[in-house]
Write a structure and sequence with these properties.
binds alpha-D-glucopyranose; 8-stranded parallel sheet; 5-stranded antiparallel sheet; TIM Barrel; globular; binds magnesium ion; alpha/beta; Immunoglobulin-like; 25% helix
Length: 532
Amino acid sequence: MNGSRPWWESAVIYQIYPRSFQDSDDDGIGDLNGITERLPYLVDLGVDAIWISPIFRSPMKDFGYDIADYIDIDPIFGTISDFDRLVAAAHARGIKVILDFVPNHSSDQHAWFVESRGSRNNPKRDWYIWRDPAPGGGPPNNWLSEFGGSAWEFDPTTAQYYYHAFLNSQPDLNWRNPQVVEAMREVLRFWLGKGVDGFRADVIWHLIKDAQFRDNPLNPDYHAGRPPNEALVPLYTTDLPEVHDVIATLRRTIDEFPNRLLIGEIYLPVERLVAYYGRDLGGVHLPFNFALLNVRWDARCIQSLIAEYEGSLPEGGWPNWVLGNHDRPRIAGRVGARQATVAAMLLLTLRGTPTIYYGDELGMPQVDISRERVRDPFERNVPGIGVGRDGCRTPMQWEAGENAGFTAAEPWLPLANDWRSNNVAELRGDARSILNLYRRLLRLRKETPALSVGAYRPYAVDEDLLAYYRELNDERLLIVLNLTDRPQALKLEEGAHAKILVSTRAERDGERVPGIVTIVGDEGLVIDLASR
Ligand code: GLC
Ligand code: MG
């Protein structure tokens, strides 16, 4: 339908946090067979690809982001054959599979690190980042871990420190060592050879650190209540120029296989983010755009961030949008249940590839986790300032039966309180539910190329309405989003024959609109301007 465009430009990605999607073996933790069982749901929803957070062998100190074997599946999630079955079943249903690639660090249980720490002259010593203590003793420099405390851990066996940007059980690999680069390229080839359609690369802007190990400068804007690592500006630990060469090498590896996608997890301001498309677009295909995760929920702020992002993209660079993930508070928790429908319409009508976080299509809430149930190591290390990530990782809510149909055992994290009424079975049967809004928008995207690949053009806004066109050939759509709970009106510049294609309130679908369109509180509309 879209000529020679790569599949991922018109695709919608759905992120699965596998521990919380569907348990198949009654251990309270989701697994690969659980995902396979639920593929019909994803087809019915209308997504094109799933990105699965890490499923590899791991001691689970950071719930899979600490990998002990990059080319094996953790028994909690299943086996390699379960994985092969999942890929085959997904592909048979037209769903692509994207894996999580965690290149920056391994687990301290990985055989590479076990060797590396064995002795100073071990062949794998230089696969990680080892330094002598500072001249007066203590860590080599002031670098801080994202998860609290020094980023240096002293290892008594060899009396040196190793660097870890995250937990001390997550030692950073040394990407300046060509052997590490080659070993990781082999990891990519292993999974690509199994038919996976791409990777989301974890903290990819972290891969290269300063060769001179200079101290990071103090952050003058730091204030109490923020995570302690923010006391320093990560000038010498992240976003170094050489990282782009490493990424270009990874990209070439991906390109050894046809039609594969490389996404980068990068938390940077937009002008630095877009550098990750790489010279001649030879970097990641999609540097995740997290701008919506923090924006003030206000029409002007959102419109100006869209303009800034659209205006910063390199020629040919394809945009993308994210509303939530396993590290950030749920959108329904941030903007409320009603605005969550408006947010859904925003995500699915902006220009660029959207990623839906599992459960957001149900408006799943941000869950308060009591102190005894906290599992996230970030919250355990840095308690009480709200960094905990468990609240956005609670089990998927499938039905009103036991444990919401997620498991027959005690779920690893508590369910949200609303699961008896707010679940797939219930919402699927209610034409006006947020789930059916997602389904209608996803169907409309498939039928209307203007929505997936058409141009974006802002419509003059006032304080409270966000409005923009999406246009392709004869298709002309106007999206109008009311970011308040008060009714609004908008005078259409044109479009005597305008018709509502999708309203966040289903009952208005198909309504003809005159020269002035009224928008009730918390409503969003996709209006067809070309229709007669
Ligand atoms: C990424 C992951 C996060 C993890 C961290 C360390 O930010 O999304 O969940 O804790 O990397 O691997
Ligand atoms: Mg299980």
